[in-house]
Design a protein that fits this description.
Largest sheet: 5 strands, mixed
Number of domains: 1
Distance between the termini: 29 Å
Mean pLDDT: 91
Low-confidence stretches: none
Structural class: alpha+beta
Number of helices: 1
């Protein structure tokens, strides 16, 4: 399974989880909290990042669930 970052985004019917680069949403949820929970599970399984967008569509939080080197190189 490839690492595909997940995005929690506003949706007409509430909140959605969408894989990066996908046109279609993975799942739709009534609340942002439910969508974050679902997106976090997917991101953990794929070792990817989770981007949580606010109602205005801007990223307000991001979490990494993979091989995030700490401390960062450079």
């Amino acid at each position: 399974m490839s690492k595909k970052n997940q995005h929690v985004v506003p949706h007409d019917d509430g909140w959605a989880v969408r894989g990066e680069g996908n046109r279609r949403v993975t799942s739709i949820h009534d609340t942002q909290q439910e969508a974050v929970r679902a997106g976090r599970d997917i991101a953990r399984n794929q070792g990817a990042e989770l981007f949580i967008h606010g109602e205005n569509g801007r990223i307000r939080e991001r979490n990494t669930y993979g091989d995030d080197p700490f401390p960062p190189k450079g």
